[in-house]
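mind reviewing these tokens:
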Amino acid sequence: MQRLVILGGGESGVGTAILGKKKGYEVFVSDFGKIKENYKDVLNQYEIKWEDETHTEDLILSANIVMKSPGIPEKAPIVKKLVEKGIPVISEIEFAAKYTSAKTIGITGSNGKTTTTMLTYHLLKSGGLNVGLAGNVGKSFAWQVAEENFDCYVLELSSFQLDGIIDYKPEIAIITNISPDHLDRYDYKYENYIASKFRITMNQTEDDFLIFDADDEAISEWLKQNKTKAKLVPFSLSKQFEFGAFIKQDTMNILINEEELEMKIVDISLEGNHNLKNAMAATSVAQLMKIRKETIRESLSNFQGVEHRLEKVLKIQNVQYINDSKATNVNATFFALDSMTVPTVWIVGGVDKGNDYSELMPLVREKVKAIICLGIDNKKIIDAFRDVVDMMVEVDNMRDAVITAKHLTEKGDAVLLSPACASFDLFQNYEDRGNQFKAAVKNL
């Protein structure tokens, strides 16, 4: 009997354990942190052995194959030992893909991937396809492969998940954009991170498609220097294509397989240029999957955005409060600031992942009237912006951040939570941070 060891007892770990058990593996789950009670209950119910708050080396190093949760770095001592022993260490996506004949649409990118994933799922589901949603969003992919029977899956894939693939390939891949992020996991080398994103296309064949942002420098550069077998489907705000998606005056055009779809930009529910790109990427998938044009147009006009991504919370005394807690890197915050049209009080800070704030300078000068630093260590943000804005305040909890913001605004202003950082210094995750912001705003 093959022995499957799973590092990490979260959603992807437990999902993989269930699928492994169903496929006849001897399964063991080991988590160096604490496994949540509801996951322990599931593991017990399936009679899967587990441990938490420790890694018992003998039990782990006796594996034939190991699934590592995406949050565990390659540099972790136990992972290094497994690699030294030549035991394959793979991701949940790699493990589960072998057990389904469903088509997969894999979506990666530094920003916009959740919105693009949710919109693609919405388009395909509205088009009547039997479709699952997994990866970084929704229920674990492996869990769904074990218990559901979908014809296709829309998968949001992080670079960490892609690092753990060997044979997996999506029939349709999307790279929304690439900007420096998570560099702490890539030896602070941007090219390593870019290469990681492009693993999404490494196993694709001539029958597969790669949808990509043709305006993105890092993507264009990689495609110049490297080869993929997949058919290329570019999208752009400024260029036009005979095969791909583009904007012409006030209309989005999708030209794929001799089929043309046009839609007025004003009819698309998502606002902002970055969302136009997300819409072009998702619509390209819908066209490739032969969803009816009428359905596509309808779905693009009624799609509700993603929670914690430029989410309008409330307007109080004519000040708009906006929750963009999902902006965990500089590039995401760039989009947020870029979309602001009124003087803005900006709440920023958290765990810095090697951020370079210089690209935000022009936007901060133009749009930001005050900065509230919400983090344990705000030195880098203060050094970057102290000469750019008149007012900077440091706080260490969300309630103080929101109350301070209220005092710094006048009628017609906006308050934007767009942290550009991870949340783990003061919050459980970006959702917790966003929910605390919304609660604090509602209590004003």
Summary: The chain is about 35% helix and 25% strand. The mean pLDDT is 93. The longest helix spans residues 273-288. The longest strand covers residues 368-374.
